Every structure is written in C-alpha cells, then in structure tokens.
C-alpha cells in the first residue's frame, strides 16, 4: 500500500466502499466521528485535534467582547483587514506554500520563525501539511481528506475527522512523515513519543509555542490600542479560524462541475479560481493545482497575489534565498495556447459569416 494511502487516520465510516466509490457519511456519522476524535479522556492520542479546536474556543470570548463591548466601525474595518487579508494571506504564505509545498526557502531559521509567527497562532502545521499532500495526490477522489463531493460538513470538520495522521504507522512510515515536516522547524517526536501521543509534534512544545505567540501578540496589540484593539484582532482571528474551514469545499466548487474555460486551466479535478480568495489571500486554487510548488499562483494580470508579493519582498531583502515561480510555464503551456485557440475560433467564425 502506498504511503499516502494510509498515512492519515481512517475515519470509522471509511474512505470508499467495496466497489471503490466515495463513502458519503450522513451528518449523524460525521458528528459522531467528530466528537469521538475530540475525546481526550477516551484516548490521549486525540490531543492534537482537541488542541486545534480548543484554540478556536479560546478565541470566541475575544470575538464576543469585540461585538458587545468594544464595537465600532473603525474597529470593524480593522477586524476585516486582519481576518480576511492578513490571516488569510499568512495561511497561504506559511502553511500552504512553504510548509506543504516548499515553494521557497528561507536564508536562515530566524526568518522562518519570523514568518511562522507573523500572525496569531491558530492552525497546527502537522494537521495541515500531511493531509494536504494527500489532498493533492487524491484530489476529489476517495481518500481526499476534504472531498467536496461528500458535502459541507465532510470538509468543515475534516481537521478532526480526516486530517490527523494515523496512530499506528511503522517506524519507516513515521520517518517519512518527519521528512515531510522537517523543513517547517516544528520539532518532531521520537518514534516512541509518537506511539504515546499519536502525533508528530509534542504536546508540551505545541502548548508552549501557542502561549508565547498569543502573549506576544496580545501585548503588542494592547500597547498599540488597548484591550479594544487586542480583543478585536483576536476575535478576528477566531472568525478566520472558523471561516477557513469552509475554503476547500468552496474551492472545489462544492463538488460540482463549475470550471470555466479561460478562467480555469486544470481539468484533472474540480478546483476553481475564485475572485475573493484570490484577491484577499492569493488563493487562485485552480492555478495552484496546476503548479502546486509555485510560490506564485496569481498568474494573470488581474490575479493579485499578496502571498507572492511577501515572498518576493523577502527575496529582495535576502530573507528568502530562493523560490519557484511558474508564471512563465503557465503562459507557455496554458494561457498562450488558449489565446491562440480563441483567436483561431474567431477567425473561423468570421470566415463563415463572409461566405
């Protein structure tokens, strides 16, 4: 069995049936799985998905304080920018393009640490990275941890139900997990520790990193604008933390065929280029599935890519030592042939009209 076929923990309802078709669990099955895998009292190996959602719950009070105590339209504008643009773009820069795809390299560990902690810590790298490799290998197929064809809840609760790594990997397979995570700077458990905790990251290190990150950012925001600003931005981070869990469902067209010629160029899966995620976070998702290792996915002139602008700026300052940019390849392989085909069709239609 291929490594990516079993690296993730299989949900109780399975990935596919005996005929190889995608299993689409109902809401009851999904929620049962969700709460079972959050149960740290039943199994300590459930600590990482529990920890991931604990951080979301801890952000909720800040959100309500912003709404009911500190609300103002200027703060609402700040919250919008922080959640939609800053948090979204950072997710693309750090979790997506660096941690998963290695689309660029840092000059040293300081700049890696700097980029990792540019925003409030929310998503554990391990949950995102390993499952995202599987997503690309099995996009919109059984085994894709957030297969949009199985519905909204299947995707929304995937970080608990489908994305954690398996708890019974062999030492050789765990070493492969370590290789996929090594460049992120997240310290790995030993194999013995992995068997105890069921994760790549150690809970002690994860909690310490979380506490230090939140303490730094709350103090910084407080010094800039008091509790009002701090609660606003922490609440905005909570809003983003929930909203980002909807992205892959939307980014794969809710499991439907919505790709448009001239907008989408990868037809091997159901990924689509969406204007809003593209503009605010550099997530031109169909382009990304064409060239997953590219530090840029906004290839066309109107496709603003703030994640790439950050990477490019860091390259100019020397903080990033190298990066991959597939824009030229995209133009040569897809965009220019499309324009030539479109031009040929127009000429043919004009010729037919003349005759």
From TrEMBL:
Segments passing through the bilayer: 47-68, 75-94, 215-242
Location in or out of the cell: Membrane
Superkingdom of this protein's organism: Bacteria
Keyword Lipid biosynthesis: yes
GO MF terms held by the record: oxidoreductase activity, acting on paired donors, with oxidation of a pair of donors resulting in the reduction of molecular oxygen to two molecules of water
The keyword RNA-binding belongs to this UniProt entry's keyword annotation: no
Topology of the protein relative to the lipid bilayer: Multi-pass membrane protein
Alphabetically ordered keywords of this record: Fatty acid biosynthesis, Fatty acid metabolism, Iron, Lipid biosynthesis, Lipid metabolism, Membrane, Oxidoreductase, Transmembrane, Transmembrane helix
Residue span(s) of domain Fatty acid desaturase: 75-293
GO cellular component: membrane
GO BP: any one term: fatty acid biosynthetic process
UniProt family annotation: Belongs to the fatty acid desaturase type 2 family.
PANTHER family from the UniProt entry: ACYL-COA DESATURASE, DESATURASE 1, ISOFORM A-RELATED
Name of the protein in question: Acyl-CoA desaturase
Species this protein is from: Dyadobacter frigoris
């Amino acid at each position: 069995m291929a490594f990516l076929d079993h690296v993730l923990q299989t949900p109780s309802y399975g990935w596919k049936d005996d005929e190889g078709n995608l299993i689409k669990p109902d809401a009851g099955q999904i929620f049962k799985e969700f709460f079972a895998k959050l149960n740290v009292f039943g199994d300590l190996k459930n600590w990482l998905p529990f920890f991931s959602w604990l951080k979301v719950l801890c952000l909720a009070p800040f959100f309500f304080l912003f709404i009911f105590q500190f609300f103002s339209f200027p703060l609402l504008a700040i919250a919008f920018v922080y959640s939609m643009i800053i948090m979204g773009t950072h997710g693309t820069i750090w979790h997506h393009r660096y941690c998963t795809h290695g689309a660029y390299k840092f000059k040293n560990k300081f700049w890696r640490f700097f980029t990792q902690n540019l925003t409030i810590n929310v998503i554990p790298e391990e949950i995102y990275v390993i499952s995202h490799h599987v997503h690309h290998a099995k996009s919109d197929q059984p085994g894709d941890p957030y297969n949009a064809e199985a519905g909204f809840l299947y995707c929304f609760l995937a970080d608990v139900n489908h994305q954690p790594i398996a708890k019974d990997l062999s030492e050789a397979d765990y070493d492969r997990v370590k290789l996929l995570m090594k460049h992120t700077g997240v310290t790995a458990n030993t194999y013995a520790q992995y068997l105890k905790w069921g994760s790549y990251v150690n809970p002690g290190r994860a909690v310490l990193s979380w506490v230090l990150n939140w303490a730094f950012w709350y103090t910084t925001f407080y010094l800039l604008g008091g509790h009002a600003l701090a609660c606003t931005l922490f609440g905005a981070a909570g809003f983003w933390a929930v909203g980002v869990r909807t992205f892959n469902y939307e980014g794969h067209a809710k499991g439907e065929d919505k790709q448009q010629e001239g907008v989408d160029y990868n037809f091997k899966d159901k990924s689509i280029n969406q204007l809003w995620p593209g503009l605010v976070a550099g997530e031109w998702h169909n382009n990304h599935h064409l060239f997953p290792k590219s530090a840029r996915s906004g290839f066309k002139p109107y496709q603003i890519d703030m994640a790439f602008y950050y990477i490019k700026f860091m390259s100019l300052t020397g903080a990033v030592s190298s990066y991959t940019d597939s824009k030229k390849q995209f133009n040569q392989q897809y965009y220019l042939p499309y324009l030539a085909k479109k031009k040929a069709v127009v000429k043919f239609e004009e010729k037919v009209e003349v005759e």
